[in-house]
Amino acid sequence: MAGTVEQKLAAQGVVLHEPASPVANYVGFVRTGNLLFVSGQVCFDANGKLIAKGKLGAGVSVEQGNAAARGCGINLLSQIKAALGDLDKVVRVVRLGGFVNSAPDFLEGPKVLNGASDLMVAAFGDKGRHARTTVGVASLPADASVEVEGVFEVS
Amino acid sequence: MAGTVEQKLAAQGVVLHEPASPVANYVGFVRTGNLLFVSGQVCFDANGKLIAKGKLGAGVSVEQGNAAARGCGINLLSQIKAALGDLDKVVRVVRLGGFVNSAPDFLEGPKVLNGASDLMVAAFGDKGRHARTTVGVASLPADASVEVEGVFEVS
Amino acid sequence: MAGTVEQKLAAQGVVLHEPASPVANYVGFVRTGNLLFVSGQVCFDANGKLIAKGKLGAGVSVEQGNAAARGCGINLLSQIKAALGDLDKVVRVVRLGGFVNSAPDFLEGPKVLNGASDLMVAAFGDKGRHARTTVGVASLPADASVEVEGVFEVS
Known about the structure:
- 3 copies of one chain form a homotrimer.
- Chain A is α+β, with helices and mostly antiparallel strands.
- The first copy, chain A, has one domain (42-150): CATH 3.30.1330.40.
- Chain A is built from 3 helices and 5 strands; from the N terminus they run H-E-E-H-E-H-E-E.
- The radius of gyration of chain A is 15 Å and the shape is globular.
- The mean pLDDT of chain A is 96.
């Protein structure tokens, strides 16, 4: 049964999915004490298709990047659900680290990352506000346009 | 009233300022337990002007980058003061993550980041020594030359 | 005397070494509570020589990068031994952050990072499985091909 947070997301059309299992010697998340570290999530959708592919500033628009970052956020939430069973156990979104696949002259990373940040606040309200670091990187796995990792305080 | 650490900094000419408020769904810092996570700080000065703009290895010198990293450090300290009210509550600087806006052949990132690391030790002495990661990135928000994030143990 | 984990590694030909001391105002690791944050380790071998130098996708192969990431992992383990005296005190590998010195069209970062991830599982078994973030960066210190940082839960 979906908890309050998941119901609120569903009412906004956000559906969580079974997170992809890493095919190597790492995992989607690790809990230590009350902190949950979630692996960097690239912008695959529920069907394993990239929401945006390629570089911002070289063919991918800010709007497409923002949608991709939101998709990374859905993947983070899906990992949290797999970890805890219920998103209601999130006490606080502590930190998001955002990596934008960027041409060297692309400067609008924060507008891209807002796609993930806005989703966190849509899910958790004020508890969704987080510390954030946004940088533009030379390349990302699978040529994804965005990758986002997270640290969450959980009960 | 300024605490011991802030007085020591003032004696060295380092003045903290009201940190810039993020204009989106994230915040400057989040505390969880005794850890304070501070958002990535780009090298804006107290007046909101970039201390260095553009890429290291393509127009920005190591010296300018070092000054910019020091400015990121001042912004980190300003966020800590906003979070805790007093820098004396810092138990240990745990980790700095440094991102240098770099041409692909720029290799002197550590010399740049020393601007932030030296400031931490100037402020906190041995408690200011931290784990550090330095990488060269393709681009940064606003074309800032340096961005630094931090994790701090606080009381 | 080497603990169980170190003996297991030695049987696989993995020998730890005295970690390089940073020549600046930062340190190889900081412990806070039960978390050990280890500084980003570039792919120097025990003799201070880079295992791979230059960019993936521009002269450095995935195999060379994988060996370099494994070398970063050995450096992380060497830092942990310096911090704790015994690798057996590692309760869990929490997170690895992997930075691959990448040409803009290099997409195989995860295969590179597996060199570090596989080493963690070789050392710690299931406790070695970790959250992971892999990105391709514009440049790294000393033109190293790979840099890896880590967070570890320790006793």
